[in-house]
Amino acid sequence: MVTKPRESLTYSEPIATGEVMIDVAPEKVYRLVCDPVSMAECTEELRKARWLRGATEARVGNWFAGSNRNGWRRWVTQAQITEAEPGRRFAYRVRTPFFVPISRWEYDIAPDGDGSRLTVTNWLRVPPWFVPIAILITGEPDRAGTNRANIATTLERVKARLEGREWRR
Questions:
Q1: Which long-range contacts (CB under 8 A, 24 or more apart) does 48-52 make?
Q2: What's the rounded Cα separation, in Å, for the pair 120 and 150?
Q3: Helix axes 26-33, 143-162, angle to 10 degrees
Q4: Helix ranges, the chain (H)
Q5: Dist. CA 158–CA 45, nearest whole Å
Q6: Which of 14, 23, 30, 84 is the most buried (most CB within 10 A)?
Q7: Distance (Å, rounded) from C-alpha 27 to C-alpha 60?
Q8: Which of 16, 63, 17, 58 lies closest to 38 in space, CA to CA?
Q9: How many CB atoms lie within 10 A of CB 73?
Q10: In angstroms, rounded to a whole number, what is the distance separating the alpha carbons of residues 159 and 154?
Q11: In the predicted model, what is the mean pLDDT of residues 55-69?
Q12: What pLDDT, in 10s, does the model give residues 18-50?
């Protein structure tokens, strides 16, 4: 699915989602996904993250910055944590450094047998006027398709890392 034209964008449904079963307890999954600095090692576009405004951990209201890359393109984002329930749920909203909303990310963790089920969901929050600019900055006209593929790759890496298997970016 290519990013919808400006006049037909909807924000009521996620643009991308993915799910994986991981053979570790929900608390261990949460410790990784709620740490953007560590998660940057597993993600496709997010290459580096750092806490902002004195934050050092995942708490509602805390902020972190992301350095992102797609090929030769580079951009930065800021994210504010909106939900942080250890072992269950982690969510944040992303914006540009100049306050334009970009997206919302949610990580839901549920016990599943002796392990966990991790579900990642992404919503687009970009105002219609900013869509062409976002495409220019990121080089991605198909944000939904890109995020679906990136979520799948990230989930494979998270699973391998948490299960103690070799993996590479």
A1: 52/78
A2: 11
A3: 130
A4: 26-33, 36-39, 131-138, 143-162
A5: 15
A6: 30
A7: 18
A8: 58
A9: 13
A10: 9
A11: 96
A12: 999 999 999 999 999 999 999 999 999 999 999
pLDDT for res 8: 46
- Provide the H-helix boundaries in 3-130: 26-33, 36-39
Q: What is the mean pLDDT of the chain?
A: 92
Q: How far is CA 117 from CA 13, 108, 152, 165, in A?
A: 21, 8, 14, 18
Phi, psi of 118 (to 5 degrees): -110, 125
**Which amino acid is present at 145?**
G
Question: For helices 143-162 and 131-138, what crossing angle results, to 10°?
Answer: 50
**Comparing C-alpha atoms, which of 59, 95, 57, 61 is closest to residue 78?**
95
Q: Which two tokens stand for residue 123?
A: 């919503």
- Length of the chain in residues, anyone? 169
User: What is the percentage of the chain residues whose pLDDT exceeds 90?
Assistant: 89
Cross-strand partners of 105:
92, 122
Token look-up 């966990």 returns 116
* pLDDT (tens digit per residue) in 75-106: 999 999 999 999 999 999 999 999 999 999 99
pTM over 0.85: yes
Residue 144: HSE in the Cβ half-sphere, 13 Å Cα cutoff: 14
